[in-house]
Write a structure and sequence with these properties.
Four copies of one chain form a homotetramer. Chain A is mainly beta. Chain A has helices at about 50, 245-260, 265-275; strands at about 1-5, 15, 20-25, 30-35, 60-65, 75-85, 90-95, 115-125, 125-130, 135, 140-145, 155, 160, 160-165, 175-180, 185-195, 205-210, 210-220, 230, 235. The first copy, chain A, folds into two domains: about 1-85 and about 140-225, Jelly Rolls (Sandwich), CATH 2.60.120.580; about 240-280, no CATH class. At the A-B interface, helix 2 and helix 3 of A face helix 2 and helix 3 of B.
Amino acid sequence: MKEIRQKGEYSYVYSRYREPIEYVNSGETVAIYTKDAFENRIKSESDLPGETLGKYVNPQTGPIYIKNAEPGDTLQVKVKAIEPTRDHAISALIANFGGLTATEQTRMLHDPLPEKLWFYEIKDNIVEHNERLKFPWRPFLGTIGTSPDLEALSSLVPSNHGGNMDVPDVKPGNTIYLPVLTEGAYFYVGDCHAGQGDGELCGGALEIPAKVTLEFNVIKDKSINWPRIESSEELMVVGSARPMEDAARIAYSELIIWLEELGWDSLEAYQALTQVGELYRG
Amino acid sequence: MKEIRQKGEYSYVYSRYREPIEYVNSGETVAIYTKDAFENRIKSESDLPGETLGKYVNPQTGPIYIKNAEPGDTLQVKVKAIEPTRDHAISALIANFGGLTATEQTRMLHDPLPEKLWFYEIKDNIVEHNERLKFPWRPFLGTIGTSPDLEALSSLVPSNHGGNMDVPDVKPGNTIYLPVLTEGAYFYVGDCHAGQGDGELCGGALEIPAKVTLEFNVIKDKSINWPRIESSEELMVVGSARPMEDAARIAYSELIIWLEELGWDSLEAYQALTQVGELYRG
Amino acid sequence: MKEIRQKGEYSYVYSRYREPIEYVNSGETVAIYTKDAFENRIKSESDLPGETLGKYVNPQTGPIYIKNAEPGDTLQVKVKAIEPTRDHAISALIANFGGLTATEQTRMLHDPLPEKLWFYEIKDNIVEHNERLKFPWRPFLGTIGTSPDLEALSSLVPSNHGGNMDVPDVKPGNTIYLPVLTEGAYFYVGDCHAGQGDGELCGGALEIPAKVTLEFNVIKDKSINWPRIESSEELMVVGSARPMEDAARIAYSELIIWLEELGWDSLEAYQALTQVGELYRG
Amino acid sequence: MKEIRQKGEYSYVYSRYREPIEYVNSGETVAIYTKDAFENRIKSESDLPGETLGKYVNPQTGPIYIKNAEPGDTLQVKVKAIEPTRDHAISALIANFGGLTATEQTRMLHDPLPEKLWFYEIKDNIVEHNERLKFPWRPFLGTIGTSPDLEALSSLVPSNHGGNMDVPDVKPGNTIYLPVLTEGAYFYVGDCHAGQGDGELCGGALEIPAKVTLEFNVIKDKSINWPRIESSEELMVVGSARPMEDAARIAYSELIIWLEELGWDSLEAYQALTQVGELYRG
């Protein structure tokens, strides 16, 4: 199995303007090494993010060129395994970043909240900081996607190409479908998590570097609008927009389209999703 | 056990300005009869909502005066049972109402979507319209709450007093906590559902009239800001606001306060909820 | 001319459940006395709001019963004059209130911003705190409206009945149109401002008590959905919703309806408003 | 004076990954030719957008490399003149585009609104389609900006680099300040309008191709966060975000920073903007 490590600088952008670091065939399974969201720069709980990190966060491994992938195709990605390459996960409160603080997007006159780090030991399927902050090992890929056709988008942003979706269902055993928007797909991945609740509330999940095993398949002449996820029991669509009402509208609209592909009538699909659809914020 | 039926007209408002229909003691268990969201007016699948319904939807049974409840107290409501009083549930597409249509709040120039009704038979713990639209019996209370102190709020609106929250966890076995905002609490309930997905997407769940068995207890000198729900495994807070980002902020902020009451530090609670908090839209 | 002063407690709610303080005929001009948003309780710049104010802010004078006003009519209100009844205006930073701070609606973990008061002398058409904070006298009514039909809404809330719109065009010389939603209209007014920018950014305009001269006329059998304002040069509609995108959609949709009443085609009105419509946040 | 015309294909992206079409000195005044938002493809009122346009709209002329501009500098752009290069302006209703329709971002189940075109003659400072749709000539630049540092952003998107702001104050006589985010600034411009109301309601302003005269100056070692505009009487900041509440917060926060640069205290600036700040949606 081919092992892929970043060549040169990590990418902080989903971009077809960068040189591919590797070429992969449809049908191939590869192992990809990713750094954590802090590019592995935080070494101890006293390394405050504001002093330790560079200009960007969320480094990506890529772009990986998927042979024979062309606009209008779909890239199927089966998540085979996520193995941590460090014995601990790190979560952080970063200034002006997170759900219950003023941010660059939601500006206020308050002083920033204090920065803070939590280290968690990973052992025996448990991720543990102390007796209270002790969680099961539930690894997933925070950031995964193809590249937009014209744009190059920050690895902090989710959109229809995937990107920083932070959806816990991007996990081993599940299959992800991504739109191919440019020749070769220009696939990136990074930001693995040892677990996370809905919404990545404080802005920092249980961040880990990892070895990620993925199987790629190009589905020819089949286009999708937004990322889809298939588990053994569920069909899922990831919609990303602000406000969240619009994200929910995208996800449910695309689920209706998916059900139509499976033979449903659109109003019947709308009705079914009303009664059993589930919605969470990644 | 006392049985409570509406006296006079059903209420379409959570209001302390109406006359109590019944007085209940703290500690008492009562059975309350509710009509469905259409006030039971829809008799067949050809009774289109626009022609059949009156000016308002979502009738409430109440107000029920809870003795000894005073502002600053909390009203604990244990949901003991929900029994349908009709052999079928009804879901509806109503013009300009729902998640994937223009509404009175999100105005557009489109013609309304067509109105449509679905009848579902309730039998053997199955709620069934046809082979595709066939769901398990998962009953809950769509609308429940106390009355605001000064305001009288539409039964279509959720707020800190409860109201039209449409949260599937308001179900038998769970305990709801509501703030007491006015003397006697002026409790209302209605809008039972035989089941619903997250978001009540098309605007109409599986609507049923029901007999609802509730146990009331007044917790003196204990105030809460927003409704709380306790199951055997989870602590939940219902936050309601637009956009949904603000609703999520309220719910997570109040969960942090709840954890602080249980001895947690606020930043540690923020961290824990980041890793294992769950979020859904009622 | 009849002079109307509040009888009993000021109202902090737009409600038809209160007893009218006065009855007014269609065609009548009256003078109404209002207190400032702090119920005139702040006496010096050291009276911090958190210590000085009661549970509510924004007291209203009313309800005033408008004879012969019935649901389906429109209440026309001509603003004839606004005269301050105090020689100074007051602006305040109140904890958790305003545009660049966490609020009860947009919850965060920050400590509140400091509270602060600014007193402004009103003299010679100038409103002056110091050389920098010195503005022209541009009085308007911050809060004006009829009562909802079933609901009673806080005087801090704007909705289709009017209420706390904080629109600087509700000023002498302009005419306001309000929907009549209940028999007698149950009109309230308060919260006069010596001036304000768009958005009432910090949450406190130049707050004044005032004597307000208004002429009321009932327009029979003519219903409107949202408040309208007419100046000598402009037609305006006030839409209130969160997020502001929805407020803008309401206002523009209702302007299109207004232009249709004047003989325009709806798409032509949509086109015209695209090219010359103006939009500001009250 | 140097005249700049697009070399090769027009750009539909603000990107430093494209080859500069021209190099300009600080202090230089140049004339730049832009095409209209439809790349001048619509030739008659029967050329419906869905059939006539390609995959993208809003072509930009650029990138123009500004010599000596480096990250941390500010690019000052004085708008000297906007001259139409066609005798008519065009406005369009495009499917799923605009303020009162479902869009790709705000998805719904409605059929799209009809497409429609309006041609306007430009003559004697009047822009006229018919007696009703007849407006003054008020030209401005809809889209102007530098390039982001890592990202390449669609020319339909506004952000802190500028882009598709659609702000009518980007007009002759006013000065625009843009952050320099990458060496050479990689400046683009396009999407001139013969006029527009607030919000570009239907999605199409009075679109024109134009000859635009701009003077560029690099202000060294002076960084700004968001675009600023200076007229003879006003200081303006353009904030772009969804929802509009966040855009307003950005703009007002940056105005406070601007006033602080001019010697104001932040809370005093907050107070002043509360009383005289103005807010409109571009």
